Amino acid sequence: MGRRRKSGKAVNGWIILDKPSGMTSTSAVGAVRRLLDANKAGHAGTLDPMATGVLPVALGEATKTLPYVVDTTKRYRFTLRWGFATATDDREGEVIEECALRPSEAAIVAALPAFRGVIQQVPPIYSAKKVDGQRAYDLARRGEDVTLAPQAIRVDRFELDEVCDADHAIFSVVSGKGAYMRGLARDLALSLGTVGHLVELRRTAVGPFEESHAISLDELAANGQSPAASDCLLPVETPLDDIPALALTEQEAGRLRNGQAVSLIRKVDLERISAFADGETVLATAMGRPVALSRYSAGEVRPVRVLNL
Q: 74-206, which class in CATH?
């Protein structure tokens, strides 16, 4: 039996979706794929169904660059409600604890420095973390006890933006991979002698992708599969700006495309490779177009992920 062909067209690039509340990240990616009739898609960094904001969707060959986005810095803005803890640490869970204490603005500001830098965080039990091969949220929904180990996360910025009223405050966060905003809200409240949960969460940036790049599903649907929809696509190499580029001849590029190493040990090559460290990842290009994510070592580059563009 022959290999089954994937449905859809070869669409290559990035759609930066402004994910609506009430939709899972997987469903959002599926919607983008259907609207553009793309044959392959993936996303960089899950957003909770309640959350809104920047969800980078990689299409076609852009999926090969996903690891360079998933691990990047992310920015968030969230609203915390004091005095009520929920099972899910957000507004969608049942209230499991109440506390009459409401922290002052001065107390909130004084507590924030303890949550910056590399800190330990216990993920919410309603999360995709695995316990003995099963998702924690599946176990929690079945009423089973879930114990998750603390993990190290990096929080570059955690600021109080506004005290809305005695019950609500708005915060902004810049963090690394794996940080749960629900966990930050929960733990901040506990450190202040009360409890709390998220009522609003919006991601405002993922690596190089910001709100200004984002498009809603309604806008994407209005464009459909017209040329206007293609105008929303960002190039495959957009998240690779921080990776050194290496310009190749067409002959050299052909070798990389065929999975072969390219030797760069001639005197005329020295200027091209002088800035590269041994073992460094480089983006090989030819005629201004990306060819492959490659690794430089000992005077040659070897393809790691060939980009068929």
A: alpha beta
CATH 3.30.2350.10 domain position(s) in the chain: 13-72+208-238, 74-206
**Tokens linked to 168:** 């609500």
Residue 154 CA to chain centroid, in angstroms? 14
pLDDT in tens, 183-207: 999 999 999 999 999 999 999 999 9
Q: Based on the residue annotation, tell me whether 48 is a catalytic residue of this protein.
A: yes
pLDDT digits (tens, 9 = 90+) for 135-161: 777 776 777 777 788 899 999 999 999
For tokens 């959002």, name the residue: 28
Q: Which CATH class is domain 13-72+208-238?
A: alpha beta
Q: Where in the chain is the domain with CATH 2.30.130.10?
A: 243-306
The dihedral region occupied by 96, where left means phi > 0, alpha psi between -120 and 50, and beta the remainder, is alpha
Fold of 243-306: 2.30.130
Q: Which of 48, 89, 90, 187 is catalytic?
A: 48
pLDDT at 149: 85
Q: Model's pTM, two decimal places?
A: 0.88
> 291 by DSSP, 3-state: which?
strand
